[in-house]
């Protein structure tokens, strides 16, 4: 991790491109089981809440920040969480590691919705910049403006995430590196490392 200070005037709505080349439309038809479950639950009452609870059951550490997933589609995920006493530091502000947890939830779910069903993924690195303090509830947004082609060879996908306070100011920025492999070329160490439910 790298720490530093920076201007907090930017918001998550600023366009960020994670891959070189011209953007192309994102295809949802090849997405895996998790995005399919998300789409189905959009048709039932409290679908987002049920989906989030299922994610936290699969990955229990996410429960520590009490997240709520609001939007999910290939290339995008938005998650919110309250500012509870359990996620505060000694200064009474939102803890840095809780912010990292929020960043990983958004990045992980966005990756699940983006990577085709023929592939698996695992996070292999995270770089974080702590820009300011937060005393409110928070929102994490993972966004890709363009996607690479997914093939049989291993590849790495850099996922940018902004964590915002209730005023829309970015107080933490993160970049999470995801390594993707096709099912046929998936390493033994990769098996079961994602939230792949199919």
TrEMBL record:
Region of interest: Disordered: 1-25
Record-linked Gene3D superfamilies: Hotdog Thioesterase
InterPro entries hit by this protein: DUF4442, HotDog_dom_sf
Pfam families the record matches: DUF4442 (PF14539)
Superkingdom of origin organism: Bacteria
Biased composition (Low complexity): 1-14
Protein name: DUF4442 domain-containing protein
Organism this protein belongs to: Brevibacterium aurantiacum
